[in-house]
Write a structure and sequence with these properties.
A 7-stranded parallel sheet has the order 3-2-1-4-5-6-7, with helices on both faces. It has one domain (9-189, 239-251): NAD(P)-binding Rossmann-like Domain (Rossmann fold), CATH 3.40.50.720. It is globular. 46% of the residues lie in helices and 13% in strands. The protein has 271 residues and is of the alpha/beta class. The relative contact order is 0.14. It starts with 8 loop residues before the first strand and ends in an 18-residue tail after the last strand.
Length: 271
């Protein structure tokens, strides 16, 4: 099936991470040109080097610090100058701070989540619309989280911002509609990344054994982490012409948390 993404210019924030890199590969397979943005320049360069083996000349990296508005706007201008415009924006960057609210030393965790998860993406979208008018007739995918729906313990800043990103998506959808563009948010469940791999290695167990010990993973219908590639596929679909009818909506990619995976072992009528 032709998703209509050939020759589109795609920007992915948080492009040096597992989901960002997997998403880049999916877009490249559809014929897009992809620009990764991240503040981790070493990892970003590694992702580009890896993908360039197959997609030479269609994958690029530009430094991006969403905590710094000047960096964000400069990033957009560099992309537009180099590639004549932007068609797809994937706001994928995220930060994580876990502790109970009463134990926060200050409100800095909330500020960081706000800048990376909302203020930075708003500045990026605004600058894109100003510098590349065709952006408004393209698509935006805001990568949120199921945590914005169901909450997570010790994640006050994270869950708050993930819920706010859905409102940002609604506003983008409203402002893009007159130009034929669309905006969708995506709420993945728990996804296997190097963070979880390091935790499993620290415990000296395999991935499968680690998954068996994690209550949040066993509460899904399939009892395993999502793969970054599974999340990436839905990001690309949402950004493609198939995503237009979904504008303003949130796609939950969770492996069945909502239908009651946590109740799989519950015998409602024993005997």
């Amino acid at each position: 099936m032709d998703l209509g993404l050939s020759d589109t210019v795609v920007v992915i924030t948080g492009g040096a991470g597992a989901i960002g890199a997997a998403t880049a590969r999916c877009f490249l397979q559809e014929g897009s040109l992809v620009v990764l943005g991240d503040r981790d320049q070493e990892r970003g360069a590694h992702v580009v080097q890896d993908l360039s083996r197959t997609f030479e000349g269609r994958i690029y990296f530009e430094p991006l610090d969403l905590l710094d508005e000047a960096s964000t706007r400069s990033f957009v201008r560099r992309v537009v100058e180099a590639h004549a415009g932007i068609d797809v924006i994937v706001n994928n960057a995220a930060v994580f701070y876990f502790d109970t609210l009463i134990d926060w030393p200050s409100l800095d965790p909330l500020d960081e989540h706000y800048h990376v998860g909302l203020r930075g993406p708003v500045a990026l979208v605004q600058e894109s619309w100003r510098c590349s008018p065709r952006s408004r007739s393209g698509s935006i995918v805001n990568v949120s989280s199921i945590a914005g729906h169901v909450g997570e313990p010790k994640a006050m800043a994270y869950t708050t911002l993930k819920a706010a990103q859905k409102g940002f998506t609604l506003s983008c959808a409203l402002e893009m509609a007159a130009y034929g563009g669309w905006a969708v948010s995506l709420s993945p469940g728990h996804t296997w990344t190097p963070v979880h791999q390091r935790r499993a290695e620290a415990e000296g167990v395999s991935r499968e054994a680690y998954e068996q010990t994690q209550a949040n993973i066993q509460s899904t219908m399939f009892g395993r982490f999502l793969e970054p590639e599974e999340v990436a596929a839905w990001i690309v679909l949402a950004a493609s012409r198939l995503g237009r009818p979904l504008t303003g909506q949130d796609i939950r990619v969770t492996q069945g948390i909502e239908p009651g995976g946590f109740n799989r072992g519950y015998e409602t009528a024993p005997g």
